[in-house]
Amino acid sequence: MSSLATTLFSGRCPICQEGALFKGAFELHAKCPTCGAVYQRDPGSWTGATVVGYMSGTVYAMLCLI
């Protein structure tokens, strides 16, 4: 199993695959309790989702006005 699949399905650290990734259902640890890797969001990680959402909403609004 690949590292990404292991991380997604087991909730383990993507670096060491031993430490827990999540504290609870929706909260990440600040760092891996086993290897100490810091978990942080990539800069601009929500930009793409925001643009797609805004554009689809704009297209929908324009279609409703026609």
What percentage of residues falls in helices of 4 or more residues? 40-55%
Rg to the nearest angstrom? 18 Å
N-to-C order of helices and strands: HH
> What is the molecular shape?
elongated
Q: Please describe the biggest sheet, giving its number of strands, its sense, and whether it closes into a barrel.
A: none
Which residue ranges are poorly predicted, with pLDDT under 50 across at least 5 consecutive positions?
none
- The secondary-structure class comes to mainly alpha
Total helical elements? 2
- The percentage of residues in β strands lies in under 5%
End-to-end Cα distance, whole Å, is 50 Å
Count all strands and give the number: 0
Mean pLDDT across every amino acid position:
84
